[in-house]
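Deliverable D4.2, example record:
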Amino acid sequence: MTMDYEVLFNQVKKASKSLVGLTDERIDAVLERTADRLEAACADIMAANRRDLEKLSPDDPRYDRLLLDEARISAIAEDTRNVAALDAPSGKVLARRSLRNGLVLEKITVPFGVIGVIYEARPNVTCDVFALCLKSRNACVLKGGSDAEHSNSAIIKIIREVLQEQGINPSAATLLPSSREAASELLRAVEQVDLIIPRGSARLIRYVRENAKVPVIETGAGICHIYFDEFGDEKIAPRIIDNAKTRRVSVCNALDCLLVHAKRIGDLPILCGLLADKNVTIHADDRAYAALEGHYPVRLLKHSTRESYGTEFLSYQMAVRTVDSLDEALEHIDRYSSKHSEAIISDNRENAERFVQEVDAACVYVNAPTSFTDGAQFGLGAEIGISTQKLHARGPMALAELNTYKWVIRGHGQIRE
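Output generated by the structure prediction step:
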């Protein structure tokens, strides 16, 4: 049976209009109820998730992102409750002033309306996007990948049941088929969808950017670097590097390339010491390879190639390159960065501040790991993605970034001369 996407998108658009008048209390009740139902349906969700996992090898980088166990489902439910506890972003007066003619101008936050999100093997995104969109009074159209089809369907079923029970149009949370056709229709839904947000690989983001007719905010792909400066502290560096790389290798804020100043190349075995325990494969340039040889497991040490740099590994692998100066480190990052998260380890204030000023990325760290790039870690409650562009939003896109604004002008018969 052929799906009429125009009718479907119009239903979502209609649902978005009904969200504007909902009270904060009613929205929060829906989110709390959704969290409870997710935990109650844990066994059903895990069963659906197992059907998806059967299609992947455990060695596939997508496997960890796709996996849902009891702890992760509880975390999704808790994140939903956390969103309910946040302040709603809509209806806030950002600016107010009176003109000489008596007109009163107000700049007020308002929802976009309908937000479309295209994502890959991340079933948690299904609930995260719904919670953030409902709290910000946006309807959402979700297009997940075929690798998470059963997991996404199980979660959206619960969400729509709760909406129905609470008297809210369930079209406010709509999951599209996992087909390529559905993605194409979403990207062309100019009259019905206000914004598209892709979450996933650089390949997915590039496809969305090149094919969308709806405005796009790019999120997701993270090619992240840490530069260990000439004046870096070798005592704090190993834990920073290890945390950035191995806390969770399949996420966009994970470390992909370590740059080491040539004067500190002798410290490289110390810097990478904790990585060996986690079985991290290192792709090293000649100088770094020589420094690690005999100090790092031979089975985990490889010579780097041109493709080693600018790669988002999403696995227990990373590149190491030796640089002769801060300038060279900055040039490397400028060439290969995805403008997501970059870090410097240095006790030299001048070098650190220059790094902060010159690195073009959404998040720039000094003596801390890139693993902190996350809406919850930033105190924003949650995020719909990490924006790597400069228009509208940059970095974690939380509730505030899911609203735009409009001007409201109040008068009493004034006319313009």
